[in-house]
């Protein structure tokens, strides 16, 4: 069976995923596209032989749309995801699930009322081979009980529209999700510390930031978020346990020796760093839908949890103090935690 996907939002990542669903993933076809920029929607739909729709509601209602992909701006996500649930159609939503914890909870409640999982959130790091190997080792007891995780999330630059709060909401949110999943543990406090600011970017931006998280089991996580580091896109993660540690590998690339140096290139953007993870994420999503299964990837609950945790980090950006995460108890509907 071919899964016919309708895409809401044909911007940067929307175009990437349309290409992925068309050229890389088998068993999927993009049949519908909408964007508030009508020309962009037309151009994207024409490239894959799909139709355009005036808005998300019309696209979700279309008979030739089996599943919905939401890649529009974050504040519009909740509206589209709720409409897809109301129509009983599976929906893959790029992060964030919604920009407020309240809207995330509305989605959780709508999905529970529907009685079957329909929502998957685009936290692609769970599909990265390095993080998957790390989870296997941690789960098998290969480093003993985990005690600490040291991470860095560096982007070369960000646009002027990027705000200090986005360091948590847009950037650290990836570590927040992947570490909840890796440790099978919940984050209960968040604190943001402000080192000396880089002079290489906008005065309005607090960059870098050091984020400290604590889990319910007492694991301490430190995360450097530095979104104007200049030199490249660099993701680091090292989990330390009672008997050893496991570290994320650098992306595979050839090493060059010459001119008195030995070295490898540093990737420049997230798209290249996580290409394989995005491909796997969509392969597994489409294969599950084609088999008539509920999605097993990051759930609406995971989307809510991530937003509740980033809210605490944003509060700490103001207060400088550790802030408790204000999270409701997880409903049985979302337990045990998703397999992927
Ligand atoms: P973008 O601005 O390039 O694209 C967004 C598109 O959505 C635009 O074309 C815009 O016109 C369209 N749009 C906005 N509101 C709409 C609506 N109501 N209906 C239809 N179209 C609408 O942004 P982007 O960089 O592609 O990011 C999109 C989403 O993907 C964001 O939520 C972002 O956080 C997420 N994202 C995820 C990753 C990741 O690593 N997983 C990376 C980048 C972006
Ligand atoms: C962007 O939206 C992403 O999701 C990238 O993965 C992240 O590295 C970047 O900081 C965000 O702005």
State the share of residues found in helices, binned by percent: 25-40%
Q: What string, H for helix and E for strand, traces the elements in order? A: EHEHEHEHEHEHEHEEEEEEEHHHE
Report the total helices: 10
In the CATH hierarchy, what is the architecture of the largest domain at level 2?
2-Layer Sandwich
- Report the CATH superfamily of the largest domain: Dihydrodipicolinate Reductase, domain 2
For the biggest sheet, the summary is:
7 strands, mixed
Tertiary shape = globular
Number of beta-strand segments: 15
Largest beta sheet: what is the strand line-up?
12-11-7-10-9-8-15
Radius of gyration based on Cα positions: 20 Å
The class by helix and strand makeup works out as alpha/beta
Oligomeric state of the chains present here = single chain
Overall number of domains: 2
The amount of beta strand, in percent, is 15-25%
Ligands (ions, cofactors included): nicotinamide-adenine-dinucleotide, (2R,3S,4s,5R,6S)-2,3,4,5,6-pentahydroxycyclohexanone
Write the layout of secondary structure elements.
Layout: E1 3-8, H1 12-24, E2 28-34, H2 38-48, E3 51-52, H3 56-61, E4 67-70, H4 77-86, E5 91-93, H5 101-114, E6 119-121, H6 129-139, E7 146-154, H7 166-183, E8 187-193, E9 209-215, E10 220-226, E11 234-241, E12 245-247, E13 256-258, E14 261-263, H8 270-273, H9 275-290, H10 300-319, E15 323-324
Parallel strand pairs: 1-2, 1-4, 2-3, 4-5, 5-6, 7-10
Antiparallel strand pairs: 7-11, 8-9, 8-15, 9-10, 11-12, 13-14
This protein binds nicotinamide-adenine-dinucleotide (NAD) and (2R,3S,4s,5R,6S)-2,3,4,5,6-pentahydroxycyclohexanone.
